[in-house]
Amino acid sequence: MIQLEEITKSYTLGKESVNVLRGISLVINSGEFVAIMGPSGSGKSTLMNIIGCLDRPTTGSYLLNEEDVSQHKDQELAKVRNQSIGFVFQQFQLLPRLTALKNVELPMVYAGASKKEREERARDALAKVGLQDRVEHLPNELSGGQKQRVAIARALVNNPSLILADEPTGALDTATSVAIMDLFVQLNQEGTTIVVVTHEPEVAEYANRVIYVRDGLLGQNPFEKGGQTR
Amino acid sequence: MSLWENIKMALMSVKAHKMRSILTMLGIIIGVAAVIVVVAIGQGGEAMLKSQIAGDGNTIEVFYQPSEEEMQQGKWEENPFTQEDIRQLEGIEKVSNVVASSSEFSTANLRDEEAETSITGINEAYLDVNQLKVEKGRSFTNADFLGGRRVAIVSAAMQEELFDGKSPIGEIIRIGVQPVEVIGVLEKPTGLFAFGSVETYIPWTAMRNMLGTNNYSQVTLQVENADDIQPIGERATTVLNQLHDTEDSYQVINMEEIAQGIGQVTTIMTTIIGSIAGISLLVGGIGVMNIMLVSVTERTREIGIRKSLGATRQQILLQFLVESIILTLIGGIIGIILGAGTAYLVSFFADWPSLISWQVVLGAVLFSMLIGIAFGLLPANKASRLDPIDSLRYE
Ligand SMILES: Nc1ncnc2c1ncn2[C@@H]1O[C@H](COP(=O)(O)OP(=O)(O)OP(=O)(O)O)[C@@H](O)[C@H]1O
Ligand SMILES: [Mg+2]
């Protein structure tokens, strides 16, 4: 489902050019649960943003569901994000003035769903993450774990084939992290492809496969070689 | 995403920052209110002037104003309109009424009481055309006019003056030495500052019998159509000048010239108001743009979130554009209400008519929306161009 071919990403800061990704080739199949690990600053988030069509690679090609999205225009990328991808961020990224329900409705607003359909599906999604009795709460009336559940409900509400989570448990305690990861496992078992960026080996253990990024390149599993990342 | 969705979202955001929204709208509110007030008062004044000159009911007054030469030839007459003149004028096509009257100042007595009043001898058409209504008692009948009966209708002010406000119906007053029976009282003129003057009306025939007045001093024509006022008025002067063998003693006001003059004044006024309004709305618009730019910066993260969820650039652009239009539109509507209220108060206390036409209201609404678009485009465009990743990271 995801096919990355020699992806590079560089930023020019003043006269200098920084190569953040230096040629990443990667295939992730439909239905996989992949964890991406690596030291801070290695380019994990940059890679995720490219996979999530929030950003374009400097060079290289990217096929998402057999579609070459590296050549897509802004508008087409927005549609891909809306229909095929769900995001979960470390900082939750909920709109503070909207209730949990309205936050979950947002992706459907941009998909052009009717009000009735939106509300129905948003309630279903919130029920799925166990928040059926918190629909009218504002984000600041929810705990961190509950906020992340709302974010997950929002990510899955348009039935995307791919859910991307950049350090989804980074702001949560261990018990809450386990609950959140269980949710991802459940979604994965229902057929959604899941990619999670994380620093925590416990989190990575939920995945079927772990990918290591180091200095903008895919690397070896440091644990197998007896090395260490943290 | 539907437009309605956008409008609801914009209203929510305006409501979320009530104070700021009101302050932002203030420039638009003041600008629109100022325009509404000035235009209402201006148009009201213009309408009042025109109706005073033209008469409410398609009327035009005929003047007697002999030239110097004719004066020297001794052709001057105090009551220049004869009964024959009136008959001739009534014969002109499209003339619906000829109002004729003569008036004099005199004293009227009721027993020991005495009052100064104008005595106006009128013909049948006078009360109707001048929209004078008899409130108490009765109006003149044909018999009163034909028989020259000594009956009078007095103004409300006259009732106060001579009768201490008591009903004068049936009382006999003396004008000079002649007894006259009061049969009716006129309705009080309306308006807060309209006092009305002390007036007594009697049939012209009675006036002729009592005071020996032979002719009429004042003539007003009423025509069927407003458009006919000028040509019929001129036709009337030709007829009168022929009858009296005068050059140009009988005249009517050239209403087209006056209308043009008023029109010019109005144009100048409109230009001045227009530029004041333009400046204040420009300032208001810049205020809106300023706040919208601040709002875009404040909501960078929101924009990032929306984009990550699939909002296109156009959808973000529309969101912010609708928001600034809603701001200016609400400002405009508040301005209209405020302006209309002020205009109403002004006309109430200053006894000056004000006229709020739907064209002005519609214009104000459209113009404030236009300002919202013009000054909202820059901030909305800025919002739509934000990079989603940078925006998500924005603190
Ligand atoms: N817009 C940018 N301009 C310049 N450099 C950038 C930009 N975005 C990221 N970088 C650089 O790219 C590198 C990788 O950043 P990235 O956020 O992908 O790291 P990461 O692996 O997610 O790190 P962390 O684990 O701390 O989240 C960093 O060195 C960062 O400074
Ligand atoms: Mg990162």
Query: Which CATH class of chain A?
Result: Alpha Beta
Strand/helix succession of chain A: EEEHEEHEHHHEHEHEE
What is the CA-CA span between the terminal residues of chain A?
Answer: 31 Å
The greatest interface between two protein chains, and residues involved on each side, is: A-B, 25 and 22 residues
Question: How would you describe what is shown here?
Answer:
Chain A has 230 residues and is α/β, with parallel strands linked by helices. Chain A has a single domain (31-49, 77-228), classed as P-loop containing nucleotide triphosphate hydrolases (Rossmann fold). Chain A contains 7 helices and 10 strands. Chain A has helices at residues 44-51, 74-84, 100-111, 115-128, 144-156, 174-189, 201-204, and strands at 2-13, 16-28, 33-37, 59-64, 67-68, 85-89, 162-166, 193-197, 209-214, 217-219. In chain A, the strands form 2 sheets. In chain A, strands 6-7-8-3-9-10 form a 6-stranded mixed sheet, with helices on both faces. A 4-stranded antiparallel sheet of chain A has the order 2-1-4-5, with helices on one face. In chain A, helix 3 (100-111) crosses helix 4, helix 3 (100-111) packs parallel to helix 5 (144-156) and helix 4 packs across helix 5. Chain A is globular. The two termini of chain A are 31 Å apart. A 6-stranded mixed barrel of chain B has the order 2-3-8-5-7-6. In chain B, helix 2 runs antiparallel to helix 10, helix 2 (18-54) crosses helix 12 and helix 12 packs antiparallel against helix 13 (358-385). Chain B folds into 2 domains: 3-52 and 259-393, no CATH class; 66-248, no CATH class. Chain B has helices at 3-16, 18-54, 68-72, 83-90, 126-129, 142-147, 156-163, 204-211, 229-243, 255-298, 300-308, 313-350, 358-385, 388-393; strands at residues 59-64, 95-110, 113-122, 134-137, 151-154, 172-175, 178-186, 199-203, 218-223, 250-252. In chain B, a hairpin with a 2-residue loop joins strand 6 and strand 7. Chain B is α+β, with helices and mostly antiparallel strands and 395 residues long. The radius of gyration of chain B is 33 Å and the shape is elongated. The longest helix of chain B has 44 residues, at 255-298. At the A-B interface, helix 2 and helix 3 of A face helix 1, helix 11, helix 12 and helix 14 of B. Residues 11, 13, 18, 20, 38, 40-46 of chain A line the site of adenosine-5'-triphosphate (ATP). Adenosine-5'-triphosphate binds next to strand 1, strand 2 and helix 1 of chain A.
